[in-house]
Amino acid sequence: MKTKKLLSLILVVAMVLISFAGCGTKEQSGTPEQPKAETPKEEIKADKILKMGGTGFSGVFNPIMADTTYDDYITSVLFEALTINNSEGEYVPMLADWKLSDDKLTYTFTLKDGIKFSDGTPLTTEDVAFTYETIACPDYNGPRAYAVSSMKGYDEFHSGAKATFDAIKIIDRKTLSFTFADDKAAPANIECFIYGIMPKHYYKFDKWEDFLALNEKPLGSHVMTFDSYAPKQFIKLVKNQNYWDSANAAKIDGVLVSEVPDESILAALQTNQIDFAQIASSKDNLDAANALSNISVTNYLGNGYTYMCFNCTRPQLADVKVRQALMYALDRESFIDAQYGEGLAEVGMAPISPSSWAFPDASDLNPYKFDMEKAGQLMDEAGWKMGSDGFRYKDGQKFSVNWLVYTDSSWPGTLSGMAADTWKQLGVDLKIELMDFDTVVSRTMDPEPADKDFDIYTMGFVLNIDPDPTGALFDDDAYVAGGFNSSGYKNADAMELVKKGKAEFDMAKRAEIYKEWAAIMNEEIPHIIIAYRKELWGINTRVKGMDLGTYAKWTDVIKNISIE
Length: 564
Description:
alpha+beta, single chain, 4-stranded antiparallel β-sheet, 564 residues, 21% strand
């Protein structure tokens, strides 16, 4: 099976590289006419194509609609944002410098000189305003609403009551401002400006469906341009030969992303079919990668975690004692030993990364060490009594849950397989449903709340640099179609702390607030934080300048990457 998958990969890579040899940036059929590029196109060289392997790409190549890390990779090298973070986790200008008003409510951005999209059209404040107005528009159903929902006049604009978004003021072609509502000043607000700017002339729409139709035909201003995409096969990007900042243009001629399952990554790296990939973190994989002479290995603590989401609207999971019981009956330490190995992951304690300044003292949190006796006690207290058939019942109903497990990565299967044993001992009727990643998303995050079709699912989550959870898993307001929070859990006290922490500019005080918030989440566990894990990457020795770290993704250093 592995041989067949690798052979298919080799054929796909070979065919796409052949097509690279004679291609430049091409027009997309069925899209608005594009002006001619102002600079001559260079010949694309196949040996200067950076080849990535991975899986989980959904084809939503739109900076304000992408809802997976994988699609974000693509949008991050096609589109540029107003701001970007450096390797230290500090926000610095990308397209624009900014000033913050004395009342900390208004950000005034001044665009750099000469910016233009890859079709040669100048990028102006009209495009910036269009991007953010689109996020705020009544039709918007993506995961970025939090980027505008705290701004002045959002409710009126989003509801359709007003035709203008009061928060945004265009001063001239290079200068505009964003103003937040009077009670919404927050240090984390700078993170609202990390999303790629879209050209108004290309993306403007009358019907929302027309806007979404361009998800697979993206057009941005960054160092790469979109060429082609075949679902579950490859994504082809080529160098933006019309890049506005010629001194910082890409050193490579393109990026080819090939669909490679986890189990084939090491073989693809070893045979030079791909240049780099994230490797499933495990001691065996680390040892195997280190043994490859053509590969250098990088590992670092990721800014995120793996998690389990409970659908707290389901009667059997609404009781916190039941959720705690299931967590006590989940042997996460054994899972980490089996899946990752020593030094590559640690048990999750709170929905904040250990790399963050806001990470609480672990001694203040319940570690939920594996304890079947405690788990059984809690189920009894919740009224779920063990029946003669080995399952628990309450009011004549068997305790039964379904768990959506995506097979694109190995760890969800490992975890659910271990739970199938220990939860059965607890008296749980567990039904595991195997599917691909996209199907899990379509049943959990994509639908309206009433249509979310699951009891439990597991996934990984990448955090923003600021620990503010607004818009993420633990935000009550993110329980919407397209939102990241699928749990349906509501806690007014916790949300009040979220708002208080977001508005506090004193870092020490913020840390105390998030410590208190983390304690509530640790007690209530609408989402179980399974593990904090190190990210493991294999990089071909011919690739230079790919210096990765907790706050430095390959997309952040794309301009530094070269190929020998």
